[in-house]
Design goal:
The protein is α/β, with parallel strands linked by helices. Helix content is 36%, strand content 25%. It has 2 domains: 5-124, no CATH class; 138-390, Vaccinia Virus protein VP39 (Rossmann fold, 3-Layer(aba) Sandwich), CATH 3.40.50.150. A hairpin with a 5-residue loop joins β6 (96-101) and β7. The relative contact order is 0.08. The structure holds S-adenosylmethionine.
C-alpha cells in the first residue's frame, strides 16, 4: 500500500482521533504467548477535562482501564506494537485498517470498507444521571442490555438511551397524577418487556410507589421469559399475561402504555384506556396500515398521496391526528411529540393523553371535524372511531 506502513497507520490513527472518527482500536496477537495481557482495546472518551484515549487492558482474568491524553496514548500504542503485540486493527467511521507484523519483523498494512456503526456519541463521565441504574440491575442484564460488569453493551446503547428517554418523558406525567396507592398500570403489547421493566423499576424503586403492573402480550414465549425475569428481579407486583389487547382480563386501568403496538393494536389499546377511564394513556404508534389502505383521495390533494413513502407519512399523520382528537373528545388533554430522535428509531411519535374531564363539551364538534378530515382523504372509517361508535361511548 504505502512505503512506510507503520507511519501510514499512525497518520491514519492520528487523523481519526483528531476528527473524532475513532470507533475502536484493538491491539492483539501477543509476541510472548505466556504474557497475561491478552489484548488492548482503545476508544475515545469524553471526560470533563476533555477527550482522552480510553485503554482497556484485557488480562486473562481481569480488565484494567486507563485514560491517557492523545500524545501519551499514541506513544503507548507504538510501544505496545513494537514490544508486546503483532497486530493493530483500527475501526474508524471511514475505514477498517489493519497493521500486521510477522515474527520476522515484516510489516504490512491493509484497508477495507468500514464494518462498524459510526460513532455519534462518546461515552463520557459527565453524562446527566440516567433514571435507570445499571449497577445491580438484573432485568437489564437478563435482556442483554448490560454485561456482567453492569456496563451498557455498545450495541445496545440505543436501546438503553431509548428506555431512559421514555422514563424521562413519562416521569412528569406520572408525578402530576393523583392516584390511589396501589394504582394499576398496564403495558399493552409488552413484547420483550424492555420498557415494562424499566417503568416498574422507576415507579417501585425510584418513586417508591406500590403499583400493580401487568404486561399484556399474545406471544406466550415472551410472557414466560418476562415472568421469569420479573421473578429474578424481585418485581413482586409485576406480571405478564398471555392474551390480546382487545380481550385481556383487566379489572382496572389507571395508566395505560402501548409502545409500538402494531397498526390497529394501538387503537385497541387506546380504546381499552378510554373505556376504563384511565388517568393516563401513553402510546407510541407503530405502522399505520389501516388508514393507508382506506385512503382514496379524489380531490385536489391527490398528488399528496401519489408517492408511496409520502402516502405512508400522510397515513401516519392522519391516523395519529384522529387518535389524538378522539382522546381530546373523551376528556383527555393530549400531546403529540417526538419520542426519540429518528436517528435511533423511526417509530418516534408519542401520544400522551391525560384525563382532565369526564367528557369534552366539544365532543360532537370534534367528531364532525374528524369526519371532515376523513372526507378529504376518502377514508370511510378510522378503526378507533368505529370501535367507540359501535360500543356507544
Ligand atoms: C413491536 S413489539 C413492541 C414491544 C414493546 N412494547 C416495546 O416497545 O419494546 C409489539 C408487541 O405487541 C404484541 N402485540 C401486537 N398486537 C397485539 C395484540 N393485539 N394483543 C397482544 N399483543 C400484541 C406483539 O406480539 C409484539 O410483541
Amino acid at each position: 500500500m504505502e512505503n512506510n506502513p507503520t507511519q501510514t497507520f499512525f497518520d491514519k490513527l492520528a487523523r481519526c482521533i483528531d476528527e473524532k472518527k475513532l470507533i475502536k482500536l484493538t491491539i492483539s496477537s501477543q509476541r510472548n504467548k505466556s504474557s497475561d495481557l491478552q489484548s488492548i482495546i482503545i476508544t475515545l472518551t469524553n471526560l470533563k477535562r476533555g477527550f482522552r484515549l480510553n485503554f482497556v487492558y484485557r488480562h486473562t482474568t481481569k480488565d484494567i482501564t486507563k485514560n491517557y491524553e492523545f500524545d501519551e496514548g499514541i506513544g503507548i500504542i507504538r510501544k505496545a506494537l513494537t514490544e508486546d503485540f503483532y497486530n493493530a486493527d483500527l475501526f474508524s467511521n471511514d475505514e477498517n485498517v489493519r497493521l500486521a507484523t510477522n515474527p520476522a519483523g515484516k510489516v504490512k498494512i491493509s484497508s477495507q470498507e468500514p464494518t462498524l456503526q459510526p460513532v455519534t456519541e462518546f461515552h463520557h463521565d459527565h453524562i446527566k444521571s440516567r433514571l435507570i441504574n445499571t449497577t445491580g440491575n438484573i432485568y437489564l442484564r437478563e435482556l442483554d442490555i448490560i454485561n456482567a460488569n453492569w456496563e451498557v453493551r455498545r450495541e445496545m446503547s440505543d436501546k438503553f438511551r431509548q428506555i431512559n428517554r421514555y422514563i424521562e418523558l413519562i416521569e412528569p406525567e406520572i408525578k402530576d397524577l393523583t392516584l390511589p396507592d396501589n394504582y394499576h398500570v398496564v403495558d399493552m403489547g409488552s413484547g420483550k418487556g424492555y420498557l415494562t421493566f424499566a417503568l416498574y423499576d422507576y415507579l417501585a424503586n425510584r418513586l417508591k410507589n406500590t403499583p400493580e403492573m401487568i404486561g399484556v402480550e399474545f406471544r406466550e414465549d415472551l410472557v414466560n421469559v418476562c415472568n421469569a425475569i420479573a421473578g429474578k428481579s424481585k418485581f413482586d407486583h409485576l406480571k405478564f399475561i398471555s392474551g390480546t389487547i382487545e380481550k385481556a382480563d383487566l379489572n382496572r386501568i389507571d395508566i395505560l402504555i402501548a409502545l409500538h403496538a402494531c397498526d390497529t393494536a394501538t387503537d385497541d389499546a387506546i380504546y381499552r384506556g378510554i373505556t376504563s377511564g384511565a388517568s393516563l394513556i401513553v402510546c407510541a404508534p407503530c405502522c399505520h396500515k389501516q388508514i393507508r389502505k382506506e385512503m382514496n383521495v379524489t380531490s385536489e390533494l391527490q398528488n399528496v398521496v401519489r408517492y408511496g413513502i409520502l402516502k405512508e407519512r400522510q397515513a401516519e399523520i392522519i391516523t395519529d391526528t384522529i387518535r389524538a382528537m378522539i382522546l381530546e373528545a373523551n376528556g383527555y388533554r393530549t400531546k403529540v411529540f417526538e419520542f426519540i430522535s429518528t436517528e435511533h428509531t423511526p417509530k418516534n411519535v408519542m401520544i400522551v393523553g391525560r384525563k382532565t374531564s369526564k367528557e369534552n363539551p366539544d365532543k360532537e364538534k370534534i367528531f364532525n371535524d374528524i369526519a371532515a378530515i376523513r372526507k378529504v382523504y376518502g377514508i370511510r372509517k378510522h378503526y378507533l372511531e368505529e370501535l367507540l361508535k359501535s360500543n356507544e361511548i
